[in-house]
Amino acid sequence: MDDDDVFKALADPSRRMLLDRLCEKNGQTLGQLCESMDMKRQSVTQHLGRLEQANLISTVRRGREKLHFINPVPLYEVYERWIRKFEEGRLSLLHDLKQQLERNKK
Fold first, then answer.
1. pLDDT computed for residue 1 by the predictor
2. Among 41, 57, 79, 89, which residue has the least CB neighbours within 10 Å?
3. Contacts of 10 (CB under 8 A, 6+ apart)
């Protein structure tokens, strides 16, 4: 996974909206996704291409339709690398504070 591709893909509000739509109902066609967007089909296609390049979505052909599915793995990898470590420190501080307050009660 290339973190830069993921962050670039997530930087655009339209792409985040597409991911939100796929999170609500996974496996949508381009037409279905276009219904919820205030932009031309070609623009939605370009945004989907960027999401696919970042591996945030995958596609499956079913007959003439192309279904789009969210791929949560790159988001989880970003969480693990960039977010989780900040949560651990905060949780550790809260744990230490709790223990200190409990000691002070005695």
1. 55
2. 89
3. 16, 19, 54, 56
3-state secondary structure the chain: CCHHHHHHHHCCHHHHHHHHHHHHCCCECHHHHHHCCCCCHHHHHHHHHHHHHCCCEEEEEECCEEEEEECCHHHHHHHHHHHHHHHHHHHHHHHHHHHHHHHHHC
Cross-strand bridge partners of residue 61: 66
- Here the CATH number for the domain that contains residue 64 is 1.10.10.10
C-alpha–C-alpha distance, residues 46 and 85, integer Å: 33
Q: How many domains does the chain have?
A: 1
pLDDT in tens, 16-54: 999 999 999 999 999 999 998 999 999 999 999 999 999
